[in-house]
Automatic annotation (TrEMBL):
Biological source species: Actinocrispum wychmicini
GO molecular function per UniProt: transmembrane transporter activity
Sequence intervals crossing the membrane: 55-79, 86-109, 115-138, 159-181, 187-205, 234-256, 268-287, 299-316, 322-342, 363-384, 390-410
UniProt GO cellular component terms: plasma membrane
Coiled coil: none
Membrane topology of this protein: Multi-pass membrane protein
Protein name, entry field: Putative MFS family arabinose efflux permease
Length: 441
């Protein structure tokens, strides 16, 4: 059995249930990403209130992404063994608790850099669980014919709420007070948890073979990724681009507020909005560009955008007006990031068997996002010991190199394999659906 047919042997959910699940997942993504965006604005700016060191401020971004490096593989095994909706619910609850603790400490004047770092780690671990489970739950909740459309909608609200809406909301809420920002975030996480309980379906994957030790199942995920040349190369390309994004996100708070741009918290939120604006446009144009140029060139836009993201701070003069150019670079990055994400999700969900999706997603994200904390740390050190232009410029040069492996491996023929029609199969009886609210175990 080919991976392509294996991944789609989970029979499509009934239409009514599938439509309900699709919109619940889209709405959940919207609420959670607004909360995440507010948190990503609030935590670094809260650190700015306690220190002027670019390295210590950048450490917040490092710790938010470090769990991908440390926990992704083990989380992937749990995602393939456990109920994926339950794992997402647990992650949402953990986020709510972490922000709640920070809120209480802030209101009682007990907030400190170590506390912010601990909260960042907790949020990072929750993100690993939520994103790995969320990427793997779609084949069980939505028919394959809707994967690209649902993926585009989910990606659209990710960018819309995480950048275009969430970032300026975060800036406004922080300007109103950190207590208001953190309290709002906690309430939104509660809403996200409630939405997950409304999903219906069978979100536990039946194993195709006997369960083995965790280490062996981790090895299976890594081996599958490594043997698939296209998937392996895509993961390595994302490793570099995610590193560039992490470097930008780690240094940009100090660069924009304490550094050459001299922006206010609200203006900083608007700068981050450019990422979301580009991302939203990307979800609109990805379908037409796929049809016009093909998936390959649609995905290539991400390399161009990532280069623009880290290159624009290098060339702009030290003045507040330069924020416009930096914003254009962020806009292009958001545009390319969306077009890559929508296409990559379809490729993964088509080529990877359903009972391997958790481990594959974790392994690919470990490779792809494991560079983020390292890149963020390097960028913070470079910004502190040299200057901002060097910190950004190093990653701009690295981005240029990505063109070579992309053109050699991500060929039109390789990507076209994804769109091959599947052989028709005789429908089997659908698996029994879980209740809307799962009993506690």
């Amino acid at each position: 059995m080919s991976p392509q047919t294996a991944s789609s042997q989970e029979h499509d959910p009934p239409k009514v249930r599938a439509n309900r699940n699709e919109w619940l997942l889209v709405t959940f993504t919207a609420t959670t990403n607004v909360a995440d965006a507010v948190t990503r604005v609030a935590l670094p700016l809260l650190a700015v209130q306690l220190t002027h060191s670019p390295a210590l401020i950048a450490l917040v971004a490092v710790l938010l992404t470090l769990p991908w490096l440390l926990t992704a593989l083990h989380v992937g095994v749990f995602v393939d063994r456990k109920n994926r909706r339950t794992l997402m619910f647990g992650a949402e609850t953990a986020r709510m608790i972490a922000i709640g603790v920070l809120l209480v400490c802030y209101m009682t004047d007990l907030v400190s850099l170590p506390l912010i770092y601990v909260v960042a780690i907790a949020l990072g671990v929750a993100e690993v669980v939520a994103m790995t489970s969320g990427a793997s739950i779609i084949p069980s909740a939505i028919p394959k014919a809707r994967w690209q459309t649902a993926g585009a909608r989910i990606t659209a609200v990710e960018y819309l709420c995480n950048g275009f809406v969430g970032a300026p909301i975060g800036g406004v809420l922080v300007a109103a007070g950190f207590g208001i920002a953190l309290g709002t975030t906690s309430v939104i996480y509660v809403l996200g948890a409630v939405l997950l309980l409304l999903l219906v379906g069978n979100f536990r994957v039946e194993p195709t073979r006997e369960r083995r030790s965790m280490n062996l199942e981790i090895k299976d995920g890594l081996t599958f990724l490594w043997r698939q040349k296209l998937l392996r190369t895509m993961a390595l390309l994302i490793a570099v681009m995610a590193g560039c994004w992490a470097a930008w996100l780690a240094v940009i708070p100090a660069f924009a507020i304490e550094g050459p741009l001299h922006l206010s918290e609200r203006q900083y939120g608007l700068l981050l909005t450019c990422l979301g604006a580009g991302g939203v446009l990307g979800t609109v144009v990805v379908g037409p560009i796929n049809r016009l140029l093909g998936r390959r060139w649609s995905m290539f836009v991400d390399i161009i955008g990532s280069f623009a993201l880290v290159a624009t701070p290098v060339v702009v003069p030290a003045a507040p007006s330069s924020a416009i150019v930096v914003g254009i670079g962020a806009f292009l990055a958001g545009l390319g990031g969306t077009m890559w994400t929508v296409n990559a999700r379809v490729i993964y969900q088509t080529l990877v068997p359903n009972d391997m999706l958790g481990r594959f997603s974790a392994a690919s994200r470990l490779v792809g996002w494991g560079t983020a904390p390292i890149a963020a740390a390097i960028a913070g050190v470079l910004a502190t010991t040299t200057n901002y232009r060097i910190a950004f410029g190093v990653f701009a040069v690295i981005c240029v190199v990505l063109v070579i492996p992309f053109l050699r491996v991500v060929t039109a023929a390789a990507v076209a394999e994804v769109d091959k029609p599947e052989p028709e199969e005789t429908p089997a009886e659908p698996a029994a659906a879980e209740p809307a609210v799962e009993p506690a175990r």
